[in-house]
Amino acid sequence: MELRALRYFVTVAEELHFGRAAERLHIVQPAVSQQISRLERELGVRLLDRSSRRVRLTPAGERVLGAARDTLAAAARVRVVAGEEAAALRVGVASCVTERLDRALTRLQGGDRPAEPVLVDLPVAARLDAVRDGELDLALVRGPVTAPNLTVLRAWSEPLHAVVARTHPAAGKPAIGLDDLDPAGLRLPSRETDPGVHDAIVAALPGAPPRPAAGNLVNVLFEVGNDPRGWSLLPAEQVAGASVDRLRTIPLDPPVLVDGYVVTSPATPSSCVESFVAAFAD
To answer: What does pTM read for this prediction?
Structure first.
């Protein structure tokens, strides 16, 4: 049994189309069909139901698919151990590096499918487009995500914290409620820059009056620091490394959570998606 045949089978199983599978593999379609037929003869089972309209996995094909992916992953691990460089893993992120991101990248580098992460700083919309276009392998996004034709899976949750100027009346408190914050002092991150976080903050403050967004994280923190009554709500992990002398970060009581998501292409093997989500999970 050749690894090539297993790779061809996994690709056809993911595409459910011999033509698209051949395009992904950069070979002609008859070669894919020949390898699948040979694999079926070797295993003594039919892996795919073929018709002029569609391709479907048989029950045996569904069982073999998971084992085939595991075998290919093990082979990739052997090549890495033997000295082959790990493949680059292109990750779309926000501009700040968090402990979660650092921990997850360490996990991915040392996992069963070793990878060398390459971080790409992009606004959320551009991150999603880059995954859709194949320029990124995955993207990390906070807050509600609308991403047609992409795979979106929740990986973690984190609290929103209030960020206030050090001269704010609530700056010395160990925790504050939303009622302690003057709606007029709210500084919102731009929806164009980070729609998920923007929407999560607005959802937590249904009675807040609309006001112009301050822009990206740097602009929000700058405006809050220059206003004795200014404040914002931001993900705790995002602002943990952005503390400066003129700002204070305060937990909310009761807490307000925002979810974090791993976004990948539907063409990404499910075993890879599972390892990505596990790396960033709580």
So the answer is: 0.67
